[in-house]
Amino acid sequence: MNFWEYLGSRHQQLLADAGQHASAVFQCMVVATLLGVLIGVVTYRTEWAGNLATTATSTILTIPSLAMIGLLVPIVGLGVPPTVIALTLYGLLPVVRNSIVGLRGVDPALVDAATGIGMSRLSRLVRVELPLAWPPILTGIRVSTQMLMGIAAIAAYASGPGLGNEIFRGIASLGSKNALNQVLAGTLGIIVLALLFDAAYVLIGRLTIPRGIRA
């Protein structure tokens, strides 16, 4: 059976795995984005706090993904929980770092002008600082998503959802007639999903970032 025949015979399972993979990455990125931006907002005003936040999230990223999931399994069990926790933690660094950089890069004169017209600190943050910091934050989200697409495949080690199951099945059956097809189908599926997500982020950027700021 060649690769195209394999895709034709397994397309329903592959689509289901792809949907689970995309859903896991998307949901974890939503949580990582909310946490990352919140950490950035809390720490960007103080040099040591920003450095601590960046260092802490960088340290998490140095832990091998297989080891991270292996450490989580005895605590939260198999399946979705270790996948969600690991992906969320791995997705933090680019969002935290870019949130801090973006917020620190806002022109102080604009913040002073907002203060001068009577805006509260929260209003300045929501209406002035975060919108101006959005381009680098979005870049951080894009980077995190690309990383998580690959890392999510390791979740199959802990019976997690996604295309990693296809890859692991192929590796486990090396030498069989469909082993290479399984690995190739899972790998190409992840690449396609990564490209689709990145295209969506480009569209979001065009819709949410004014032309002058993009320039």
TrEMBL record:
TM stretches of this protein: 24-44, 65-93, 183-204
SUPFAM superfamilies, per the entry: MetI-like
Keywords linked to the UniProt accession: Membrane, Transmembrane, Transmembrane helix, Transport
Membrane topology listed for this record: Multi-pass membrane protein
Residue stretches making up the ABC transmembrane type-1 domain: 18-201
InterPro entries named in the record: ABC_transp_perm/SBD, MetI-like, MetI-like_sf
Subcellular location field: Cell membrane; Membrane
Gene3D superfamilies: MetI-like
Primary localisation category: membrane
Pfam families recorded: BPD_transp_1 (PF00528)
Family membership noted in the UniProt record: Belongs to the binding-protein-dependent transport system permease family.
Descriptive protein name: ABC transporter permease
Organism from which the protein derives: Streptomyces pharetrae CZA14
